[in-house]
Amino acid sequence: MRGLLTRALPWLAVALIVLGAWWLWPGGDAASPRLLDPAALAAALPADGEDGFTELEATGDWTPQLPQDLGPHPAFRTELWDLTGQLRDDAGQRYGLRLTLVRLGLRAPGEDGARASGLAADALLLGRFALVPEDGEPLRAERASRTAAGLAGATADPPEVWLEDWRLRLGGADSAGAGRLAVAADGTRLELALTSEKPVVTPAANLLTGAGAAGPDTGPAFRWLAEPRLGLRGRLLRRGTETGISGSAWLDHIWGAAAGAGAGLAGTRGQLALNRFLLQLDDGSELLCIQLRRRAGGGTPVPTCLVIGPDGDTRVLQRRALTLAPKDATWRSTDGAAYPVAWRLAAPGLDLSLNIRALHPAQELILGERLWSGAVAVDGEHAGRPVAGGGRMDLSGYAGADG
């Protein structure tokens, strides 16, 4: 199991990000058809390394170049920006927030040959947006557009991605100015200023090091960086009423092989399954926790957590320093899959004890097989003081591949 952990952990963690991005906190009708499926689209395109696109070499560690690496990498076929967070309005109402933007390259930079038209596109951008109130009906929207005629695009300076009137600008802790998010759908408009409050981290490199990977060539052939805490502040126009709103978010940015279909599907098939917890606490700390286990049972599930302190220092906790276990609460889908929607996380060495619960129990995802992916609330104690927060939880392997 130890060897499987070292080889599979980062791949599976990224796979859940990619899969979870494409059914955002669904309601009761989890079987509704999806208009956009980047995994299927990517599978229909040639792999990286073909048609002039770059194939990334495996490496266990790397240093991001900021702020450029927050922006697009057009030499690679596939790329994903995934922003997830929680907000509170002036009345105290809590919302889950998620915005996912995927770039699929159609033509490699510098490819020979004249373009057939000024409207011809080098890439396709796909997006999904979800705003989920703790009480009430969720808002979900999706879009797709060619990167032509100004309809959609991405730039590195400043780092920005846009899809029609959806716009995500990333300031970055090492660049001047704040970021910005603007998105509108079905009469709702959300405008936020994004302030990077911590340095960028590379979760795959941290988790590999913590899992005991030996040498620089054991890592996955993708790049994964994260902005672990973006402060959010702005306004929400909803149902004709405007209110101030604030909160925090985590941004994952991934490019290379794992952003495509192959790695995405790899995370939910075979003998291994993974649970992923992305938590932000109000004491200024974050946790990215993943629990690897065998689908058929047997053995002991292996938890690993990347802990980011209020000062930005990182630490990896493994099974002897960590307890991550489900509580009694479950939610059962119409096809019989029983998901544990409440968990307890304890790290005695950090004097940390957390209770994790789903904001809404019915947040099942269907893509090849069934997953549970959605917003959570957190409460507990840290260093003898009460702590609260929120985040996201992804659960895989609780239903058969055929549902």
What features would you describe in this structure?
This protein has 403 residues and is mainly beta. The chain has a single domain, classed as AttH-like fold (Beta Barrel). 10% of the residues lie in helices and 47% in strands. It has 4 helices and 23 strands. The strands form 3 sheets. An 11-stranded antiparallel β-sheet has the order 4-3-2-1-11-10-9-8-7-6-5. Strands 12, 13, 14, 15, 16, 19, 20, 21, 22 and 23 form a 10-stranded antiparallel β-sheet that branches. The chain is globular, with a radius of gyration of 20 Å. The N terminus is likely disordered.
Q: What proportion strand?
A: over 45%
Please count the beta strands (DSSP E, at least 2 residues each): 23
- Give the N-terminus to C-terminus distance in angstroms: 26 Å
Summarize the biggest pleated sheet: 11 strands, antiparallel
CATH class: Mainly Beta
Number of domains: 1
DSSP summary: helix tally: 4
CATH-scheme architecture: Beta Barrel
What is the molecular shape? Answer: globular
**Which blocks of ≥5 consecutive residues have pLDDT under 50?**
1-5, 22-41, 211-217, 260-268
Mean pLDDT: 79
Q: What's the layout of helices and strands?
A:
Elements: H1 2-20, H2 38-43, E1 78-89, E2 94-105, E3 123-133, E4 139-146, E5 152-156, E6 159-163, E7 166-169, E8 179-185, E9 188-196, H3 203-210, E10 222-238, E11 241-256, H4 261-266, E12 272-281, E13 286-294, E14 302-308, E15 314-317, E16 323-326, E17 330-332, E18 338-340, E19 342-347, E20 352-358, E21 364-367, E22 369-382, E23 385-396
Antiparallel strand pairs: 1-2, 1-11, 2-3, 3-4, 5-6, 6-7, 7-8, 8-9, 9-10, 10-11, 12-13, 12-23, 13-14, 14-15, 16-19, 17-18, 19-20, 20-22, 21-22, 22-23
